[in-house]
Amino acid sequence: MEQNVFFLPHEGLKLAELAEFLGAELANSDHADVIVRSVAPINRARAGDVCYILSRRSRDELLTCEASAVICDKALADLVPQHIPIILSSNPHAAFAMAGGLFYPAALRPVAISPGESEIAPSAVIDPSARLEKGVIVEPLAVIGAHAEIGEGTRIGAHSIIGPGVKIGRDCSIAAGASILCALIGNGVIIHNGVRIGQDGFGYAPGPRGMIKIVQIGRVIIQDNVEIGANTTIDRGAMDDTVIGEGTKIDNQVQIGHNVQLGRHCAIVAQVGIAGSTKIGNGVQIGGQAGIKGHVTIGDGVQIAAKSGIMTDLAAGGQYGGVPARPLKDYLREAAQQVAKSKLRGRNPGGKEND
């Protein structure tokens, strides 16, 4: 079955041109004119495809690989069969990602529902006081509220809602079904399908007759080049702002509470929950389904393992895991000890397994 039925292959590029674009080196100049059109995993790469390897574990797959080029580090070049051209890169993973974006630029942003490139759909509802710069595309049934401002080159997806007073920068992609309220959004931001930004945060005070709602009158500030995955929710601040730092990438189904301050160039994986007023530094990586207690501070460069529970502040540069989270080495050692103990409990004194 055709793999790229939704994204057609590139018209073709010479390996010399691709290597130059990647800032990489073509191992053999005799291969400079070989044409490549697509990217593929090593196990099914065919003529015209580029693939990559990161370790010697790929040795067996290379024996049957039919790719037109392999991107790899110089230390692994000896694994590649002589008939396959090699592009040498000190960071093959990043180079492969760049190649994919070059061949399939349309796949870097949400799929457009309406094919129009320079028009506002007749069924879109736009308040007369909203200001749209030239080149803004508004797909069918989108709603743009009073005094909203949208920058040049931004696309507003079908059925999406841009609330009153919202400001969205240039060259952004707002996918179908997203809603954006009480927010200021920078340039080059990508917001995927079903994202909810700027709804009120979860704040209540216990009273004599039950829970009393605390007003949420802050904003959401999203800086340049942020990407937010499908069905993620980002609550507006209570009195202060919720802030997402420049270049941060957020996966699908993440919950970010009110007043959270998330630093620059962070990576937040699916189903992470970050409670209100948490402060997270720059370059932090958080694994899937981790939960972070409110009002804690996480330092720059911290790495948090999946399914961890963060209950206290974490020092910059550390790796943490477990519930409650502790230094990763301690967590892994304790986990190994628990596994060993469970195996011992499953044996009789004679060493035989219990029924």
Explain what the structure shows.
By secondary structure, the chain is α/β, with parallel strands linked by helices. It has two domains: 13-108, Udp-n-acetylmuramoylalanyl-d-glutamate--2,6- Diaminopimelate Ligase, Chain: A, domain 1; 125-330, UDP N-Acetylglucosamine Acyltransferase, domain 1. Helix content is 12%, strand content 26%. The chain is built from four helices and 39 strands. Strands 10-13-16-19-24-27-30-33-36-38-39 form an eleven-stranded mixed beta sheet, with helices on one face. The protein has a ten-stranded parallel beta sheet with strand order 8-11-14-17-20-25-28-31-34-37, with no helix packed on it. It is flat and about 75 Å long.
Kindly report the name of the CATH homologous superfamily of the largest domain.
Answer: Hexapeptide repeat proteins
Q: Strand share of the residues?
A: 25-35%
- Silhouette: flat
Instruction: Count all strands and give the number.
Output: 39
CATH class of the largest domain: Mainly Beta
Main beta-sheet strand count, sense and barrel state: 11 strands, mixed
Task: Kindly report the CATH topology of the largest domain.
Answer: UDP N-Acetylglucosamine Acyltransferase, domain 1
Number of domains: 2
Q: Classify the helix fraction into a percent range.
A: 10-25%
Mean pLDDT: 93
Instruction: Name the structural class.
Output: alpha/beta
